[in-house]
Amino acid sequence: MRLVVLGGGESGVGTAILGKQKGYDVFVSDFGKIKENYKEVLIKNGIDWEDEKHTESLILNADVVMKSPGIPEKAAIVKKLVEKGIPVISEIEFAAPFTKAITIGITGSNGKTTTTMLTYHLLKSAGLNVGLAGNIGKSFAEQVAEDKYDSYVLELSSFQLDGIINYKPHIAIITNISPDHLDRYDYKYENYIDSKFRITMNQTEEDYLIYDADDEAISEWLKKNKTKAKLIPFSLTQTFEEGAFIKDNTMEVIINQEEFKMETESIALEGKHNFKNAMAATSVAKLMQIRKATIRESLSNFQGVEHRLEKVLKIQNVQYINDSKATNVNATFFALDSMTTPTVWIVGGVDKGNDYNELMALVREKVKAIICLGVDNRKIIDAFGNVVDIMLEVNNMNDAVKMAQRITEKGDTVLLSPACASFDLFENYEDRGRQFKEAVHNL
């Protein structure tokens, strides 16, 4: 069996290692440059590879192709594979059959990283032998090759779900759905929504789907479509006989007639959206039969995720917050919504077809100044130019932070929450967040 791996990054190299271990004839091809550390791994494992090109004669003879999530369906080589009827799948689809471990799959437009990390924290703190993979950390395929975990918490992007055929998580979570990455879905929101719901398409009556019952797109889809999985809703406004909800400042989770209660003020993560993440993660912990005391302790000591509403420093009574992970408008909505002091907002980058109107009321109420950090800021200036008193443009992080310091007063907040991708000025959102933190520390 010939396995061709497109993309020589984390998921590609992990898949190649697992494929080789399972007796496949493996070839890795990357149209860009493969990083030195990944090349070394491929060479050490005796795996053939090429970079900065796709040699068709070495690719179109594949029995199966694993496509890295960053490569669009529209890529010429992918179209040719599909025309030839060669299955093009994701890393998750390739690796899942080689493990007996239970998987917990988590998707959504926002909150999925926090929910994934919190779920992992709950299970690990309870002493479960659990791995963490998907969009985070070490590749799922490579961990399956090492075969040391009984269960996995997987953060799954829509791109990873597009490449599944038979994969099903035992427990699936959809945190929420808002327009994102529409450039990859022919600018059709319904295509993107369908893509997220692939997480439940192979689930059976034995499996569970945990979902945000306040989310319009999710509720609409569930009205029109069926899943066999047992449904477990969570909500800030409704209550359920089975599910998770907030009532009188208490989080309640009822599953299989068992009830778990915890005061919301004891939950380490702040903000309404984080109560939702906590309800989703706690529902998993209950399904995995983790003790109440352990859940309580884990929820009260969880540290949060880097680059997601991360408090960096307080300087001259001004709080600097790194929310670089907010790469779409909906994520920035949560960030602005949780601000309680006058805010200097650093925003901008590569726009994925953003509609800034939904932020208008929050900007009017909370934002005193906007600093645009991007190559093309026209849309942001058009949207908010008449709403805030100060609108500035910069093209590097140091200037953004220095400028912010100049216009803040005691008691203000400086919030980096870009609502955009980072690829115009930075390598990725992590690089953007790290540069912000460094600039703040240098003030």
TrEMBL record:
GO terms for cellular component: cytoplasm. Residues 106-284 form the Mur ligase central domain. Keywords: ATP-binding, Cell cycle, Cell division, Cell shape, Cell wall biogenesis/degradation, Cytoplasm, Ligase, Nucleotide-binding, Peptidoglycan synthesis. Its EC number is 6.3.2.9. ATP binds at G108, S109, N110, G111, K112, T113, T114. Signal peptide: none annotated. One of its GO terms (molecular function) is ATP binding. It is found in: Cytoplasm. InterPro entries: Mur-like_cat_sf, Mur_ligase_C, Mur_ligase_C_dom_sf, Mur_ligase_cen, MurD. Residues 307-420 form the Mur ligase C-terminal domain. One of its GO terms (biological process) is cell division. The keyword Transit peptide does not apply. PANTHER family: UDP-N-ACETYLMURAMOYLALANINE--D-GLUTAMATE LIGASE. Cell wall formation. Catalyzes the addition of glutamate to the nucleotide precursor UDP-N-acetylmuramoyl-L-alanine (UMA). This is UDP-N-acetylmuramoylalanine--D-glutamate ligase. It comes from Flavobacterium glycines. The lineage of its organism: Bacteria, Pseudomonadati, Bacteroidota, Flavobacteriia, Flavobacteriales. The gene is murD.
